[in-house]
Amino acid sequence: MTNPRTIYDTDLDRTPANHTPLSPLDFLRRAAQVHPRRTAVVHGAQRYDWATAYRRCRQLASALQRRGLKRGDTVAVMAPNIPPLFEAHYGVPMAGAVLNALNTRLDAATIAFILEHGETKLVIVDREYAPVVKSALSQIKRAIQVVDIDDPEGPRGDPIGSLDYEALLAEGDPDFDWQMPGDEWDAISLNYTSGTTGNPKGVVYHHRGAYLNALGNVLTGSLPKHLSYLWTLPMFHCNGWCYPWTVTALAGTHVCLRRVEAKAIFDAIEAHGVTHFCAAPIILNMLINAPAGVARQLPRTVEVMTAASAPPATVLERIEKMGFHVTHVYGLTEVYGPSVVCEWHAEWDAKPSSEQAALKARQGVRYPVLEGLMVADPQTLAPLPADGQTIGEVFMRGNIVMKGYLKNPKATREALQGGWFHTGDLGVTHPDGYIELKDRSKDIIISGGENISTIEIEGVLYRHPAVLDAAVVARPDEKWGETPCAFVTLKDGTTATEAEIIAFCRDNMAHYKAPKTVVFGPLPKTSTGKIQKYVLRDQAKAL
Amino acid sequence: MTNPRTIYDTDLDRTPANHTPLSPLDFLRRAAQVHPRRTAVVHGAQRYDWATAYRRCRQLASALQRRGLKRGDTVAVMAPNIPPLFEAHYGVPMAGAVLNALNTRLDAATIAFILEHGETKLVIVDREYAPVVKSALSQIKRAIQVVDIDDPEGPRGDPIGSLDYEALLAEGDPDFDWQMPGDEWDAISLNYTSGTTGNPKGVVYHHRGAYLNALGNVLTGSLPKHLSYLWTLPMFHCNGWCYPWTVTALAGTHVCLRRVEAKAIFDAIEAHGVTHFCAAPIILNMLINAPAGVARQLPRTVEVMTAASAPPATVLERIEKMGFHVTHVYGLTEVYGPSVVCEWHAEWDAKPSSEQAALKARQGVRYPVLEGLMVADPQTLAPLPADGQTIGEVFMRGNIVMKGYLKNPKATREALQGGWFHTGDLGVTHPDGYIELKDRSKDIIISGGENISTIEIEGVLYRHPAVLDAAVVARPDEKWGETPCAFVTLKDGTTATEAEIIAFCRDNMAHYKAPKTVVFGPLPKTSTGKIQKYVLRDQAKAL
Fold it and tell me: What is the mean pLDDT of residues B324-330?
């Protein structure tokens, strides 16, 4: 189609008056301008307001520039959800640099790989992780500036650098005249995928996407101004699903949480009027199974966004009875965290609670800021029928899809091929347009030529009264090709045999889908609480 | 500053997978996908859902293209707040065309000027305005396609074209494969300023700004999903402050209102569960002064955004007692309607109600989507002290500043000079950063070398128990240069003399600021409820 110039294209150009790069950095400036005395951050006995938050972030940005950090340099942070990691979400990009929040459960070799691959110039390390980062640095030839955080709520220990975080801030100008990014497509952060096989890939976020998904969370959650947000979800996980920016846009309060434990969560809800948090289903499980005296009925409804894996219906039912209200979202590192939401319909309230939970376990519909979502044929990208049956790959497109993988044009090209982001997740579209994940491509079990969804089997296992945690993988089989193999952790004080578990599954699903093997014991997990299926697959192979 | 290429600028380009033009048109598509059966529009006995809304807008877009409308063509609509005007906010830009919603109070000559200047190709006219549009069209040489709306809630009358609006829709494909704009900088609408002097100017909005201010309203008002929004504010006024897009982004309900009358408003609140509306202070006044039997206590709090002029403290106090909760915003046509908000602080709740009202009468702080707001020297653009005293011009910058004025590069250049939009409004910045308007440049009175704010005098006049409406302008004076001249409308059944009014003012403000003249009678108003001060200035001159 030709696009001839019209009267609306003439003498109506972008100027500094009417065009500004979109960036979440402006949220901090506005919170400080409008609500300088409102509490921005709570951490143990510490508590500071938005004027202070802004001053500290400007100091950080200024100090980083004075130490030679430039546009496009990488600054890594290895810390739990404490104020310096929150401040890095602003101070680092305000210096023009790019934030790489490191997964705190990584081993030294992986950290060394990431610091090398990201060409990190400076790393900020919490005392608790000093040993592993020290070991990682010893594997790197080049010198990297090291800043130590001495968190009053954290453990003691020796610094590994020569500069303390507070001393670094003291080097910076609290009135630093930082600049917005020159282009909203500029990188704001770098997040390495956990990568169950091979080296992790560096997902690059830009200012535009961070701004938009920050607002996407507001629209999706109907988040109010001045919410009190508890930091259960790691900030290193997709930049805390963009909540360091979302909560700031609303001039809310960031309630830090160094250690994610049931008691600490219940205490914070009571002490700091927490209204919202995000958490993997594993955390919901932890709250449900908290010992008497720790678990308690909530003083008011607390809104929870959960994702990472489909929460089993029983978990959803039980957590809501305690006073939590759960919104189920779905996303990936490549789409700034959550990008799909199981948006609720008022008429579903009238359905039986098990049916409600089944509806809520679906992944749902696109965020308002994700312009495209479909289940399609992985080869042709042709959308598949919305029949709730036909399994295809989940594809996404829009402004909250990553810039790409750092220094990996081949992987970027493959991931974004055909104008869609290839999630690698398998799912179906229901007749109402809601998608439901059936499995990761590599998690599906093909037994006797039939596809079996491991998620479906896990859903049944979680309904067994003795099951605390469950994961299913393929076990190689001469006759069937593969058969389902279940790994199960039982609740304290309960017992169950392999035969009982298998019988329970056969009673509750098609017989061919029931596990042929059940292994009892604790499950290996990634740092973000995802079960490491590749470990289980190896175990299943070795059986 | 040089900007060398970094690792983050390499092989990480925009692709169709990760970059989509921002446009509010996507909100409609999503509302129809996710909430097809939810009520989208209510109008009298009519009521239709989001699936229907989307189908009708696609039909409109398709029919417009079939009738030859192309990208950048202008489609004008002359109608009150009824479904076809709402539909035009989507159907017209979905065809690539630009929507020009006409002020329904305009005279034929002005309409003719606008249709000529905007090079309108097609005009859609409600039966009530057929005579004035017919007269306007008779003054235009070229042929313009005319579509008549036959609103069942409107008056009878003869069509002036040969095509009915519903017949036009019937020509269109309900599954029309419309396209998002090629560029988010493309024009979405054209809004002529009311222009108290000279020809009106055509303010051009783009998709990016419309998208962002739609979300700005959500953030500013903490608007929830599925709100029920009453259409008191004309959609022709800055595209209804972007609410045709805001309410759709939240899959709320648009409750139409053909005639803005107190009874109709109270009835709609009751019948349709209205939660939100926007209105000029004049409407709030109308609700306060509604006769017994019409006015009633609200069943629940209704949120109101008000602007257009600073609401007098007494109006604010009285409307809130009825159950309305008022948020005061400020903006201009050039910034997509509201762009500044008097954001409330919880600690203000403890202040006496008169002080609260005075705080709320201030215009406030920038919207989160407006990146810059300042009171500055009109010549140098240097910001002025935040002392609540120093009067300067209000300047704005950011993504919700217009593209510019259509076919008027000189006015565009002047308005956006120096990287800021020049509002022409005068104000001060308070120590807390909140701005307060003191006057339009041309409204300030200079008496004996002292600047006198007409807004301040009006604020005092509104506190007089007999005053319904008040406006103050300069009256030429040999001795003083100018003196304040008040025009006052008294409430039914009350009386007051000129001497009493002047004495009341002298008791409540600096004597030199009190009016020297008081004229009683109705006040001339623009179609949007603004008092036409230029008419009063002429009257004052002739006294």
Answer: 93
> Residue B279 pairs with which residues in a beta bridge?
B306
The rounded distance, in Å, linking the Cα atoms of A194 and A237 is: 10
Residue B34 lies in a domain: no
Asked if A3 and B71 come within 8 Å (Cβ–Cβ), the reply is yes
Closest residue of chain A to B217, computed from CA coordinates: A219
Q: What is the pLDDT of residue A1?
A: 45
CA distance A409 to chain B (A): 6
CB-CB under 8 Å, B345 with A14? no
Q: Higher-confidence residue: A340 or B292?
A: A340
Is residue A247 situated within a structural domain?
no
Beta strand A145-149 with A120-126: parallel, antiparallel or unpaired? parallel
Q: Which two tokens stand for residue A435?
A: 């998608």
Chain A to chain B Cβ contacts (< 8 Å): 169
Which residues sit opposite B396 in a β-bridge?
Answer: B373, B421
pTM over 0.80: yes
pLDDT at A534: 78
Beta bridge partners of A187: A206
Q: In this predicted model, what pLDDT tens digit does every residue of B225-236 receive, in sequence order?
A: 999 999 999 999
Quote the number of domains for chain A: 3
Q: Distance between terminal CA atoms of chain B?
A: 61
Q: How far from A257 is each of A223, A233, A265, B123, B422, CA to CA, in Å?
A: 21, 9, 8, 60, 46
CB A111 within 8 A of CB A527: no
Which residue from A401, A392, A390, A402 is spatially nearest to A366, judged by alpha carbons?
A: A401
**Pair A182, A274 in one domain:** no
Average pLDDT across chain A, whole number: 92
Residues A405 and A470 in one domain: no
Q: CB-hemisphere CA count at 13 Å for B119?
A: 11
CA torsion angle A79 A81 A82 A84 (round to 10): 60
B215 touches chain A (CB under 8 A): yes
Of the candidates B495, B403, B511, the one whose C-alpha atom is nearest the C-alpha of residue B448 is B511
Amino acid (one-letter) located at A101: A
Strands B435-440 and B421-429: antiparallel
Residue A217 lies in a domain: no
Domain boundary among B378, B410, B441: B441
Establish if A259 touches chain B: CB-CB under 8 angstroms.
Answer: no
Cα A489 from Cα A508, distance rounded (Å)? 19
Residue range(s) defining the domain that contains residue B71: 44-179
Using the Cβ of B35 and the Cβ atoms of chain A, whether some distance falls under 8 Å is answered with yes
- The answer to whether position B242 is within a domain reads yes
Q: Mean pLDDT over residues B26-50, rounded?
A: 97
| A121 and A191 both lie in a single domain | yes
ipTM of the complex: 0.87
Same domain (yes/no): B170, B86: yes
Tell me how far CA of residue A202 lies from CA of A96, A244, B12, in angstroms. 18, 20, 12
The interface residues of chain A toward chain B in range 94-133, judged by CB-CB distance below 8 A, are 98, 119
Is A98's CB within 8 Å of B412's CB? Answer: no
A8/B204 CB distance under 8 A: yes
pLDDT of residue B1: 45
At B453-500, the pLDDT tens digits run 788 788 889 889 999 999 999 998 877 878 999 999 999 899 999 999
A299 and A150, same domain (yes or no): no
CA dist list (Å): A46 to A39, A82, A129, A254: 11, 10, 21, 12
Least confident of A177-186, A190-199, B429-438: A190-199
Give the closest-approach CA distance of B293 to chain A in angstroms. 34
What is the chain B residue with the closest CA to A20? B398
CATH number of the domain that A448 lies in? 3.30.300.30
Mean per-residue pLDDT over chain B, rounded? 92
Do B417 and B454 lie in a common domain? Answer: no
The verdict on A369 touching B (C-beta cutoff 8 Å) is no
Report which of B334, B429, B455 is spatially closest to residue B376, judged by C-alpha positions: B429
Question: Is the same domain home to B307 and B387?
Answer: yes
